C-alpha cells in the first residue's frame, strides 16, 4: 500500500498504524463512523475514483464485504447500489464477481434500481459487458423479486424499457417473471401507488402475457384499476427484436432504444405514422398498428430507413 493511499485513509479517519491495517480489510479499531467499512468501500462511498483506481492497482481482496449492519455488500455491489458506473467498470476490470448477491439475494442489477431513476448507466454495463456475463438477469431475491419487479414498483419507465428491450448484444429481462405470490412486474405496477402508473403499464404491456395468473388466480385485468382495465384489451404487439421493427415489409432500424415513431425520434420521417410505440392510453390510438402514412406508401418493400435518436 502506497503512502498516497495511507495518507487518504488517514484523512478519512482510519487508524493506519493499527496492526494489519490494509485498504481491503475491515479495521476493528476504526471510529464508529467507519465501523465495518473497509477503505475500499469508503472510496466508493465518497466517490473518490482516483483513490479507488490506485487501490485496485495493487493486489487486494475485492470481495471484502461491509460489516456495518447493512446488506453485507462487496465493493462491486456497493458501487451498483451507489449508481456509480465508473466504479462498477473499474471493479469489473479487476475481476469482481458480477454474480455476487447481498444477504437478501439481490444482485447488482437489483441494487441499481432506484426511485431516483438514475441507474441505467450501471444496468447497461451489467447487461452488455462480457465481464458481467455471470450475472443472472432474472435472478430472484429472497422475496422473489427480479430487477424488473423493482423497476416497475418504483416507476422507472426508461429502466424498464431498457431491461426488456430485445437488442443485439444485450441480455433481456423476462417481463413475465413471477414473485413468490405469482405477481409479474405488470401486476406489481398495477397494484402500486406510483404517480406514473399509466406510463409504466404502457411499457409493460408491450412485453407481458396477460394470461399469467398469480397464486390467487388473478390475472392483470383482474388487478387493474377501473381506469386502466379497459385499456388492457389493447395490448401492444410483440416487442422490438434486435433493434429492428418490421413494418409492412419495411425494415426500420432504430437506435439504442425503441423508437416511438414520433417526430422527436424520427426527425427525418415527419409523416411517419408508425404506431408501434404509441401509448395504449392515447385517444389517438385508433388507426391500425405497424403502418406508414400514405405519404410513405411508395417505399419499396425491404428498403431501410435509418431513424436517428433525438
From TrEMBL:
Pfam families: Ank_2. PROSITE patterns: ANK_REPEAT. Keywords: ANK repeat, Repeat. ANK repeats lie at residues 71-103. InterPro entries: Ankyrin_rpt, Ankyrin_rpt-contain_sf. It comes from the Eukaryota. The keyword Zinc-finger does not apply. This is Ankyrin repeat protein. It comes from Fusarium musae.
Amino acid at each position: 500500500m502506497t503512502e498516497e493511499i495511507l495518507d487518504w485513509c488517514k484523512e478519512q479517519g482510519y487508524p493506519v498504524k493499527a496492526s494489519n491495517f490494509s485498504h481491503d480489510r475491515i479495521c476493528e479499531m476504526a471510529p464508529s463512523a467507519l465501523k465495518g467499512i473497509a477503505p475500499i468501500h469508503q472510496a466508493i462511498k465518497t466517490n473518490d475514483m482516483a483513490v479507488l483506481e490506485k487501490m485496485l492497482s495493487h493486489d487486494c481482496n475485492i470481495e471484502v464485504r461491509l460489516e456495518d449492519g447493512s446488506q453485507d455488500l462487496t465493493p462491486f455491489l456497493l458501487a451498483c447500489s451507489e449508481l456509480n458506473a465508473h466504479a462498477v467498470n473499474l471493479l469489473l476490470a479487476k475481476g469482481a464477481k458480477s454474480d455476487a448477491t447481498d444477504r437478501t439475494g439481490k444482485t447488482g442489477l437489483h441494487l441499481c434500481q432506484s426511485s431516483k431513476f438514475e441507474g441505467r448507466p450501471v444496468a447497461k454495463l451489467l447487461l452488455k459487458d462480457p465481464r458481467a456475463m455471470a450475472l443472472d438477469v432474472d435472478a430472484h431475491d429472497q422475496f422473489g423479486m427480479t430487477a424488473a419487479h423493482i423497476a416497475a414498483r418504483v416507476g422507472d419507465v426508461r429502466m424498464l424499457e431498457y431491461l426488456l428491450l430485445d437488442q443485439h448484444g444485450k441480455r433481456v429481462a423476462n417481463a413475465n417473471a413471477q414473485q413468490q405470490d405469482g405477481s409479474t412486474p405488470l401486476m406489481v405496477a398495477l397494484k402500486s401507488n406510483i404517480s406514473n402508473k399509466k406510463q409504466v403499464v404502457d411499457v409493460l404491456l408491450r412485453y407481458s402475457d396477460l394470461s399469467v395468473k398469480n397464486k390467487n388466480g388473478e390475472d392483470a385485468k383482474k388487478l387493474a384499476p377501473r381506469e386502466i382495465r379497459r385499456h388492457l384489451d389493447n395490448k401492444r404487439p410483440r416487442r422490438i427484436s434486435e433493434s429492428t421493427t418490421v413494418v409492412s415489409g419495411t425494415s426500420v432500424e432504430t437506435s439504442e432504444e425503441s423508437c416511438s415513431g414520433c417526430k422527436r425520434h424520427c426527425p427525418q420521417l415527419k409523416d411517419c405514422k408508425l404506431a408501434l410505440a404509441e401509448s395504449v392510453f392515447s385517444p389517438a390510438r385508433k388507426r391500425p398498428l405497424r403502418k406508414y402514412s400514405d405519404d410513405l406508401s411508395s417505399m419499396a418493400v425491404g428498403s431501410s430507413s435509418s431513424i436517428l435518436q433525438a
